[in-house]
Amino acid sequence: MAEQIAIRPTIPDIGGVKFSGRQRTLWRDAVRRFRRNRLAMLGLILVSAFVLTAILADVLAPYPYDKPFFDKVLQLPFRDPAHILGNDEVGRDFLSRLIYGARTSITVGLAVQFIAFSIGIPLGALAGYRGGVIDFVVMRLVDIMTAFPGLLFAIFLITVWGGGMWKVILVLGFTSWLGPTRLVRAQFLSLREKEFVEAARCIGARERDILFRHILPNTLAPLLVALSFGIPGAIFGEAGLSFLGIGINDPLPSWGKMVGVSGSYIRVYWHVGLFPTVLIALTMLGFSFLGDGLRDALDPKLSR
Amino acid sequence: MARYLIGRIISLVFVIWIVSMITFFLMHSVPGGPFDEGKQRLPDAAKANILRKYGLDRPIWEQYLRYMSHALRFDFGIPYQVPTETVASLIRKTWFVTAQVGLMTVALAFGGGIIVGVIAAYHRGSWIDTIVTFIATLGITLPNFVVALWMILFFSVYLKVLPMGGWNEPGEWLIPGIFSKNWIMPVLAYALAPFSLVARYTRSSVLEALQADYVRTARAKGLRDNVILRRHVMKNAAIPMITALGPVIPDLLTGSIFIEATFRIPGLGKYFVTSTFNRDYPMIMALILLIAVLWGVTYLLTDVAYTWVDPRVRFSARGG
User: Fold this and answer.
1) CA distances from B18 to A148, A152, A201, A303, B26 (A)
2) Is the Cβ–Cβ distance between A156 and A215 less than 8 Å?
């Protein structure tokens, strides 16, 4: 697997000429491979634009996301220079809502993955490293959770507990820790047999240090790839729940909710459906390109 | 083989049992019940009567035991939202609609995806390959409700050639009414993602098989291209495809909530959402169990199919 091999060449001193022997590490090689990949760079640009929009929403948006203009309800785009992208069904400036929608998406995406990884990493590490009874119990737990139909279970939990941003995050988090758990377990299973772990054990390293200092850093590359696929997964989950009308509550904007609401107006007011779907599509594509690029860059052996 | 299968079936039953317990107790543990009054309050005696009728006044473990003992005899109770039906008949009726869309989606996704994937692999690096790869990437990435909305905007709002959705009767056959146009967009929008998945997977497994030594041998002894493709490449490429793509089928047959919501199709997905809203306990239980069982059985079957197409695989060699 992707072992972090740090080759530190002794820099030769050749007659006063400074030899710039930059270290070659896994990460530096990966960056080089990543930058050569055009699609991956496009993904990085899309994702950066998305993240920047979310961070700078307060600066970029011309109006607050919840300010209605009652005389401009469902105004079509490109008609009024004050509301370039038109207004939504309550007269709120659509551009502002789209911009703040990026913030909702990325908040949910990151928070869900944070929950998923905080459950998955310790559980998977324990199961993979210790094996035996713990492994058996954890894997049966994963089996049981896998048997639950993912989206249906999320819908079930949401209708039972009620919607809203934090509930959505909790529910999606609790239904998406399986992937990270399986991944970390598989990594720990194979890494614990490696020579460097044996070496660490030989020199009497503490268990805690073996787990967190020696093995965990070596799982970072696959975890990063999993993260870059997990975030759009969570964003999709939020958009889906909001689309069905059980996710984010008004007045907080969510692209999925905008799409869901648009159904009733789409015959004439096409903008309320088109713009959020384009943004969802660009975001998903951006993350997907980024993830593919990261995977190819970090694990050259695993080329498609 | 037999021992392995029995082990798998036992663990499947165990998992389904746990799933049923979690769903049941979670469902009952939250505030709000199926017969909570809205504006008009029922007299206490009447409410007690209703609760007694459905056995909801009993302790929860007793309700669970009773439900399970009935469920094992395929009696899933009466849905609270439509008391004149049984859960089984309601599911049959709505699944009938969902399954028709699902069947056509499976046919389109697998038929089209395999053909396109083989063509792309065969003409590797050509413009056909580029287009297929591009569409497949889009199809896998884009959520189906996004695709559905774009199709509605283009075909019904802009070109005005297709209806925006809808369904005439819940029990209606769709396939004879093939000229009704209602099904075109739901099936296309629904099929894009699995189509892309199948095409991409077919392409990579065919590519792998094309580079194998036995293909070079077949070529060297002068076999025609389509014979090589059919006899040597496709057979070997089918092996990885079965395990990877088999589980997609039950998923498609149980339908997509988003597609059904977008095109207003009265299928399973719609009922699931209304059931959870109304705390329709028997419907929720039946739907979650149905899908869990379907998934478990499919995984089991794909594993069995795997040994069938590839005799080299032995169950004993594979760890759980």
Assistant:
1) 10, 17, 39, 39, 12
2) no
Predicted local distance difference test score (pLDDT) of residue B167: 67
DSSP, collapsed to helix, strand or coil, labels residue B97 as helix
| Percent share of chain B, pLDDT over 70 | 91
Closest CA to A285 of A274, A273, A293, A295: A293
Distance set, CA A294 to CA A32, A178, B65, B138 (Å): 11, 21, 50, 18
DSSP B171: T
Q: Report which of A107, A101, A121 is spatially closest to residue A185, judged by C-alpha positions.
A: A121
CB of A129 closer than 8 Å to CB of A200: no
B58-67, B238-247, B283-292 — which is least confidently predicted?
A: B238-247
pTM: predicted TM-score of the whole model, two decimal places: 0.85
Residue B39: φ, ψ to 5°: -80, -40
Q: Please, are residues A234 and A112 in contact by the beta-carbon 8 Å criterion?
A: yes
Dist. CA B196–CA A30, nearest whole Å: 28
Chain A partners within 8 Å of B291 (Cβ):
149, 152
Q: Rounded to the nearest 5 degrees, what angle is found at the Cα of B184, between the Cα atoms of B183 and B190?
A: 85
Residue (of A200, A215, A255, A68) closest to A130 by Cα position? A215
Contact B55, B63 (CB under 8 A): yes
- Name the amino acid, one letter, at B230: R
CA angle, B37 then B43 then B48, to 5°:
85
Give the integer Cα–Cα distance in Å for B30 and A172: 19
By C-alpha distance, the chain A residue nearest B14 is A144
d(CA B198, CA B251): 14
C-alpha–C-alpha distance, residues A148 and B27, integer Å: 14
Contact A148 B288 (CB under 8 A): yes
Nearest by Cα to A299 from A238, A231, A234, A224: A224
Q: What count of other Cβ atoms lies within 10 Å of the Cβ of residue A88? A: 28
Chain A interface includes B217 (CB < 8 A): no
Residues in CB range of B107: below 8 A, 6 or more apart: none
pLDDT at B97 over 50: yes
Per the listing, tokens 């197409």 go with B309
Tell whether A263 is within 8 A of chain B (Cβ). Answer: yes
CB-CB under 8 Å, B296 with A243: no
Structure confidence at residue A304 (pLDDT):
41
Cβ neighbours of A139 in B, within 8 Å: 320
The answer to whether the CB of B281 falls within 8 A of the CB of B112 is no
Nearest to B19 among A148, A240, A270 (CB): A148
Q: What is the mean pLDDT of residues A183-190?
A: 91
B143/A239 CB distance under 8 A: yes
Torsion sign over Cα A40, A42, A48, A51:
negative
Residue B315 touches partner A, C-beta closer than 8 Å: no
Which of A67, A88, A291, B203 has its CA nearest to residue A299?
Answer: A291
Cα–Cα distances (Å) from B296 to A96, A147, B88, B238, B299, in that order, read 46, 7, 20, 22, 5
Residue B183, phi then psi, degrees to nearest 5: -90, -15
Q: How far apart are CA A246 and CA B221, in angstroms?
A: 63
Q: How far apart are CA B290 and CA B30, in angstroms?
A: 23
